[in-house]
Amino acid sequence: MPTLDWLNRAEALTSSDKVPYRVLEPVSVHGDGNTDNLLIQGDNLDALKALLPFYRGRVKCIFIDPPYNTKSAFEHYDDNLEHSQWLSMMQPRLVLLRELLAEEGSIWVTIDDNEGHYLKVLMDEVFGRRNFVANIVWNHRKSVQNDIAISLSHNHILVFAKNNFGLNLNRLEIDSGKYENADNDPRGAWYATPFDAPQIRTNLEYEIVNPNTGEKYLPPKGRHWRTTQDEFFRLLRDNCIVFGKTGKSRPQQKRFLTEAQDKGGSVKTWWDDFGTATEATKELQKIDIDFDTPKPERLLRQILLIATNPGDLVLDSFLGSSTTAAVAHKMGRCWIGIEMGEHAETHCLPRLQKVIDGEQGGISAAVNWQGGGGFRFLRLGEPMFHADGSIHPSVRFATLASFIWMQETGRPLEIPPSPPLPKGGNKVPLLGEHEGRAIYLLFNGILGDKRPQSGNVLTQEVLAAIRQICPFDGEKIIYGEACRLGEKRLAAEGITFKHIPYDVKAR
């Protein structure tokens, strides 16, 4: 498959691996404190890496509106990146986004012609050409730019699947306006579609006779009939073929509203009626938010209707004016938004607070939004590991547990570690079972305190406690700060001991 080449490409291909895992530090809770919704302040490359242990393979829909590299500086971010720098910025972020995406999920990326065609090739490389879904053309400007010869009126929305064979997109509600029932067909309303189709197929090039007029028809040049002749006669007997409204035209086939509703409607790749950039700006002005190049809520609603269902997780790592999070919240989706710098506090935080309070802009009336819900505001903290590989003191049990579980299984820790022990201690050290092995973590005095006999060191007493609290008959992997048991004893117990921090991958 052809690939893009650019300055520093080799470094860009490995940069996501070199990004250290960082701690996500809680800052504040808003609304009812719904822990499924997260606003994260920090560089999105670091933040995406920090999310991996918790959300790998769990995000149903990713929407991003990255800098377009339009050679103009915007107030809240630098959009004037040299082409190779732009590609080096996008490549590692796309790699991490793919890791976070669910097998049945999709990613939607808005872009203009400055980098759009390069981005398509780059995404072919990261996601695979077979996982390309569509290039949607969004008519974002209704007015004409009179100061130039060719007025720009569109942006691209590139859509890729994590796995096209497992992709699960929704068909939308059918527009019933074009359906009618002029002949009182007992099957209900219908509309007529041409009975011919593109290309030439000799077995589908028979003569059709209009029973009303006797006129004979062959397929138009370069086309064929949609069915075999036997199937045509069956459809004719079943009153599914009409010859125009007057009965004197070429054959057409009835398409019934009930059948279309069962399947759901398809959407075209030309989006002319899902808001404009001007509409998006006015939406923000009504709630006292000022931001360049926002996206309208109607656009995001259309995307989330196709790509998600209520309760699904939506991620936007270029959150900008936080439209994605606002729309996802109003539509009952869970969301994660990432934005760097003060902008996360000065723009995203107040807008999402207004959503919780029940603001009535954008799609609020369409979805009957009355307010409610909540989110946590997090800030990107220190790396989990120091340069020497030791674990940062701010790391807690749940964070390291999720990290180790992903290291061992390649999956996020679906179920948090067990409830507190009745006699002290934080949580049961058993993280779970995977492929016939039980994985344990001795960290932060998990069994009560940090003394070797009941804490982070694997001793006879700690092993006895594990047997009593969370026994497992098969192979066991135990992470701890030290081990006082000999190799023969470990082998007899079916234990593989892994040392913290040396056996924990620092990247």
Spell out the key features of this protein.
globular, alpha/beta, Rossmann fold, 23 strands, ten-stranded mixed beta sheet, four-stranded mixed beta sheet, 3 domains, 507 residues
Could you name the CATH homologous superfamily of the largest domain? Vaccinia Virus protein VP39
The overall pLDDT average reads 86
Q: Point out poorly predicted stretches.
A: 416-426
Shape: globular
Percentage of residues assigned to helices: 25-40%
Beta-strand content estimate = 15-25%
Supply the CATH architecture of the largest domain: 3-Layer(aba) Sandwich
Radius of gyration: 29 Å
Helix and strand content put the structural class at alpha/beta
Instruction: For the largest sheet, list the strands in their spatial order.
Output: 1-17-2-16-15-3-4-6-5-14
* Count of individual helical segments: 13
Broad CATH class of the largest domain: Alpha Beta
Walk me through what this model shows.
By secondary structure, the chain is an alpha/beta fold. It is 28% helix and 23% strand. It contains 13 helices and 23 strands. Strand 9 and strand 10 form a beta hairpin. Helix 2 runs parallel beside helix 3 and helix 3 packs parallel to helix 4.
